[in-house]
Specification:
Bound molecules: adenosine monophosphate
Number of strands: 16
Strand content: 15-25%
Structural class: alpha+beta
Helix content: 40-55%
Radius of gyration: 27 Å
Largest sheet: 8 strands, mixed
């Protein structure tokens, strides 16, 4: 017999867990729509060719298979490459710049660890078709807004620009092709440290002197302005780096004007971000309470959509890792922990009161109050216990006396208080409790 077991690296989320996940997703949806982002959904399965050739080293993690007709298919690896396909495929129907959000699962054949799974959910935000630094700033501002709304303490968004790293490699004497190896080595900085990166650079053919210079430059530290001033001085000979620094300054001006507190972001020249499709600003959010890795990451990728569309469409975006946000929120005890989706439990006193009790439940729902109903008439004490065990706050009873008087008994199971009220008053009381709980 097959084991009764979910697949390794893929998780079940039982209701209590799901309610916190939905709270996270609902918060992100609300923020996305407050900025006028529109929803998009694409299939989990794509043609393998759609995904291949875009991810660099990461490509080996793609789950590939053949379907019944022998077509080469793959599970999507992220929601960015599918966005690129959609933008090219529906070019005539989309108004650029297009702000879209998307929520769903992606798949990577990684070695599972804490916060790292083979099926994981991402919530993506992208602004397609704008090269404006205000687009980068809006995305970063939204991520700061989201982490603040979810209550993450002490999070910081690290910012860099791919052409700053490129410039660091070039002024250290490396060729254009060798600069690619520099991103990969520097990306591991937090895992393997400066010595590890140095060894890796030298292994890839960089001279020890150049490796030392690269390491010195990527470790420049200070306020955003201090770091950019220092880089501007050291990279003055490299035109693309100079333009990148000016671009990053414009993004920072945007962030300040959008009201993002200065302590929520920093410029860190060693931030590379793994994916090969980034071309401009890159960023990720970290918190000291989660040393395992980034909470989320993103950046500007001006060429990826061009691989499908045949012309470059500048785009900036990010992916919130819902699993990581969720794991950290559980660990830090952030966010609400509801036990149930219902606020009210309508009991069934006896066969004669069933119809009126069901009518009451319908009226409660019509007033916006989530309501559970008992399924068997019988002992009211037992039904109260059931409501309480499920974590429902209010239990309601229509017995023969209440039916005759047009009233309802309402028991607050949290406070142990009970009273009989006219039906309309009972519904208002619950509506009030609902708005207080929000
Ligand atoms: P990436 O698409 O690699 O830029 O990742 C964006 C975000 O998705 C990361 O910062 C993580 O929060 C999340 N993420 C990426 N890979 C995984 C994974 N294997 N398991 C869980 N979350 C992931």
């Amino acid at each position: 017999m097959a084991p009764i077991q979910n697949v390794k690296g893929m998780r079940d989320h039982l209701p209590a867990n799901m309610m916190l996940r939905q709270y996270i997703v609902n918060s992100l949806t609300r923020i996305s729509e407050s900025h006028g982002f529109e929803p998009l959904q694409t299939p989990i399965i794509e043609y393998a060719e759609t995904l291949e050739g875009k991810l660099g080293d990461e490509e080996k993690l793609i789950y590939r298979f053949e379907d019944h007709g022998g077509r080469r298919l793959a599970l999507r690896y992220d929601q960015t490459v599918p966005l690129a396909r959609v933008t090219a495929q529906y070019a005539g129907q989309l108004t650029l710049p297009w702000r879209r959000y998307a929520y769903g699962p992606s798949y990577r054949g990684e070695r599972p660890a804490r916060g790292r799974y083979r099926e994981f959910y991402q919530f993506d935000l992208d602004i397609v078709g704008s090269a404006s630094p205000l687009a980068d700033a809006e995305i970063v501002a939204m991520l700061c807004e989201a982490l603040t709304a979810l209550g993450f303490p002490g999070f910081v968004t690290l910012l860099n620009h791919r052409q700053i790293i490129g410039g660091i490699a070039r002024v250290s004497g490396l060729s254009e092709e060798a600069a690619g190896g520099v991103y990969r080595a520097i990306d591991k900085f937090d895992k393997i440290g400066a010595d590890g990166v140095r060894a890796e650079l030298i292994k890839s053919g960089v001279t020890p002197a150049a490796a030392d210079q690269i390491l010195e430059l990527v470790q420049i530290d200070g306020t955003a302005d201090e770091v950019l001033d220092a880089l501007a001085q050291k990279l003055a000979a490299d035109e693309r780096a100079v333009a990148a620094i000016a671009n990053l300054r414009a993004v920072l001006d945007g962030l300040a004007a959008m009201g993002v507190p200065a302590e929520q972001y920093r410029v860190v020249p060693r931030l590379a971000r793994g994916l090969s499709y980034y071309t401009g600003v890159v960023f990720e959010a970290i918190t000291p309470h989660w040393p395992e890795g980034s909470l989320l990451g993103g950046g500007r990728y001006d060429h990826l959509i061009g691989l499908f569309a045949g012309r470059n469409i500048p785009t900036v975006g990010l992916a919130f890792g819902i699993d990581r946000l969720h794991d950290v929120m559980i660990e830090l005890n952030l966010g609400p922990r509801p036990q149930t989706t219902a606020l009210a439990f309508v009991t069934l006193f006896g066969a004669e009161q069933v119809a009126e009790s069901l009518r009451l439940a319908a009226e409660l729902r019509a007033a916006g109050i989530n309501t559970l109903i008992a399924l068997e008439p019988g002992n009211i004490g037992k039904q109260f216990k059931e409501a309480d065990r499920r974590g429902v706050r209010f239990a309601l009873v229509i017995g023969p006396d209440e039916l005759a008087r047009g009233e309802v008994v309402i028991k607050d199971l949290q406070r142990g208080e009970q009273r009989s009220l006219p039906r309309a008053a009972a519904i208002s009381l619950l509506a009030e409790a609902l708005s207080e709980g929000k």
